[in-house]
Amino acid sequence: MVMGRPVIGITAYVERASWGHWVDVPGALVPHRYVRQVEDAGAIAVVVPPRPDADDDTALEIVERLDGVVLAGGVDVAPELYADERHASVQASRPDRDSTEMAIARATAEADLPVLGICRGMQVMAVAAGGLLEQHLPDRVGHHDHSPAPATYGSHPVRTVAGTRLAAILGEEVDVPSYHHQSVLTHPGYEPSAWAADSTLEAMEDPTAFFRLAVQWHPEVGTDPRLFRALVEAASSRR
What we know:
By secondary structure, this protein is an alpha/beta fold. The chain contains seven helices and 13 strands.
């Protein structure tokens, strides 16, 4: 039997949207750049909307039907999930995404399903593993290069860690599109795989997993397809 292309789930929002004569209607939304990158890399993309009733059993049901997952970018993870007081800069929480994506992060780890975490997705993976986040990065680094203005991506180099899977995919150094004001501080079970010049952790991976990698930047808006190709290749092999 021909297996066909792998199926990659992309986590999403439920957001009010308008199209045609329909105005302000709740819709399951993800920026199409994620879909395009996944499909250009040779997979079938499936949007996975958040569920207010998400739990670990539901997440396992979801991931059992997928060959890989992209934990997509989005709003800040609720600080209460890592037992921290809320910084004034933290965005309004989205409990449906938080509960769904935390459960999917745990379920994919249990199933050893290939995962690529992107920006918020990296932070979700860290928090789901018991890690902590830096709630407002400019307080430490003293600049806004990682997120220069609303809806404006920055660009800066990151250096990969020798010997990591990320280094094998991207090489020693790469310029990345960036839009985040938070970062991962602690990451149980993951090893650092890239850093910015200001000592911000830019990527992490689980060296014991089949493919479990997360980056703080936004590869979906760039022109470098290698991370998505690596995910799809892993998903194809994992099948």
